[in-house]
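Final report, Chapter 2: Outcomes

The project's central promise was a pipeline that accepts a single protein chain and returns its three-dimensional structure in a standardized token representation, suitable for archiving and comparison. That pipeline is now operational. To close this chapter, we reproduce one record exactly as it appears in the project archive, with the input sequence first and the structure output second.
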Amino acid sequence: MVATQSPIDARKRPRQARSAATVEAIVEAAARVLEAGGLAAFNTNAVAEKAGVSVGSLYQYFPAKEALLAELIRRKRAELMTMIEREKAQARGRDLPSVLNGFIRAAVSHQLERPRLAGSLEYAEAMLPIDTETEALKRMIVAAVAEILSLHGIAKPETAARDLAALTRGMVDAAGLFGETDMSSLEPRVRRAVYGYLGIRK
């Protein structure tokens, strides 16, 4: 049986610098189209025009607009995990609030660095068949937080990590839904909630 191409996967990966530059231009154009008009304005013609390439060139790499959305989601998630893993790697020798602050900053930045893009991708996630990837991401985040909580002697670290991840995600998503763009306002509010859950006086 011949494997069929999934509409949410890139058709091919660039091997040369010129091709890689074309793909980057297409992906950034996709982000800008979403920021400007949301999902209602998002289609391959608009992305190709914004990127300055033909629709045929776009289709060489992405078989459908869903593949572009999936690529954007995967890149945003990879950026988030890179920030979380960096904080975890630097955790030893730091107090718990300092490490938690780094995790919170990563979560807030993930949502508010490009808030219109993040908002559109939130809706796109529900439309795409990426539930398995979503669950894997949640498990990785919880595992990273639980490891730090355990290191600092927090009881039931996995349960606490799940609760803190849900609490943070809820507050950050709500901020995005209501159009917040001020990271310096949201971060301290999330910190107060996280510290309160853990009984940290700071």
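Archive annotation: The chain is about 75% helix and 0% strand.
This record, like all others produced under the grant, will remain available to the consortium after the project formally closes.
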